[in-house]
Amino acid sequence: MKNYVNTLYPGDCFRDWLVWILGDRIHNKNCAVDVFKYSPSSHTVCRYKFRDEHYSVIAKFFGEPCGKMKRYNAYEAMTNEFNNLKRAEQFINVARPIVMNSDMNYVLVTEYISGKSLFTYMESERHLYDRLTSVAHMLRRLHDNTDGYYNKEREFANFHHVLDQLHLNHSTRQRFNELLGKWWNSSLIDRYSGCMVHRDATPCNYIFRHGVPYALDFESSWENGNAVRDLGIMCSELKNYFEFNKGSGNNAEPYIGHFLWHYSRSEEDFHYVSRTLPFFMSLGLLRSARLHRRYPHYNYLLKEAMECLKAYR
């Protein structure tokens, strides 16, 4: 969600800096700039729309945290996302990074991508199969072109971190720990190599402009991750959305199967992905559970997350 918050005119320090940085992209150097703030977000995130210029940028201020995490290295977070975007844009369409500035509240400026999010297509289901195909192919290109070593330990450490955030009762946490132990000792999560993963592969982070997909928000992206992680997060989002908004998570199954099939290189690859997927779908459902702790839907998410881990075989 975004809301209009202000209009900036010549003489405003940040507006004038943007106009200078953007150079020939802004023809009228004296144009007013309308500001729209997005929420919720982990930091202050605003769209700066240059009036009559048909041009906008997104500014993320890492020096202005809005989430629960208040203490972190803002400079490191800013440069990390900038570098992640530069890396990813070699292989897929992203909101291209333009500039970062430590003196302006650790701001990262990227291009603004207008269009419809994947979430919008989930709401109507019109063209959803086609849009999922595009995202599947995009993720495949990112994963295939960023080979590196594989950090299995970090995948499990992150899973435990998400469980820690849920403050589960002792018996429930123990059951999750036991199931995770079985996955750790299996070969399903083992890989010969890792890759760059988006890590926040949620429907709102994929925008379609004239039918072409763009990926947004690489703040939490990892190198040396498990490729199936991105697939599991996306599939958990599909299942959760259909359960919460369309009567049953089972109605998402055809879309999930379609998405995985178009990601896979072969039938063998499809079966491997399908067997590994429950681990990361469980993680995705638990991520969503953090947002529903005071609502009945929370119990559904915990139950489904545990059922996914029981699918170990």
UniProtKB/TrEMBL annotation:
<dbReference type="InterPro" id="IPR002575">
    <property type="entry name" value="Aminoglycoside_PTrfase"/>
</dbReference>
<protein>
    <submittedName>
        <fullName>tRNA A-37 threonylcarbamoyl transferase component Bud32</fullName>
    </submittedName>
</protein>
<feature type="domain" description="Aminoglycoside phosphotransferase">
    <location>
        <begin position="74"/>
        <end position="240"/>
    </location>
</feature>
<keyword id="KW-0808">Transferase</keyword>
<dbReference type="GO" id="GO:0016740">
    <property type="term" value="F:transferase activity"/>
</dbReference>
<dbReference type="InterPro" id="IPR011009">
    <property type="entry name" value="Kinase-like_dom_sf"/>
</dbReference>
<dbReference type="Pfam" id="PF01636">
    <property type="entry name" value="APH"/>
</dbReference>
